[in-house]
Amino acid sequence: MVDFNFQPKGEKSDYGWYSRGYIPHFDGGAVCQFITSRLCDSMPQSVLKKWKESSASDVEFRKKVEGYLDSGYGECWLKNEKVAQLVENSLLFHDSVK
Predict the structure, then answer these.
(1) pTM over 0.70
(2) pLDDT tens-digit map of 35-45
(3) Taking the domains of the chain in order of start, what are their residue ranges?
(4) Can you tell me the distance from the alpha carbon of 56 to that of 15, in angstroms, rounded to the nearest whole number?
């Protein structure tokens, strides 16, 4: 069974959540995982800071952020086929299941 409890900063369990001090990490063997990233202009830091201060809960804050990110603000670089292809090639570079 996978341990979903966080380990103290810097300590790592064989499988499970642990922290390196800035982003939680999960080592789960053959568990499927995903990475979410966003481009630098997809959300102004001033909006993020304002919502973080004014939101009543973490859930409310995350809903606002996800809604904003899904709106497509910013340059939307991944709509450019050349940029999208470059990103795809980068992600697939070490993929052995081609």
Answers:
(1) no
(2) 777 788 888 88
(3) 1-33, 34-92
(4) 34
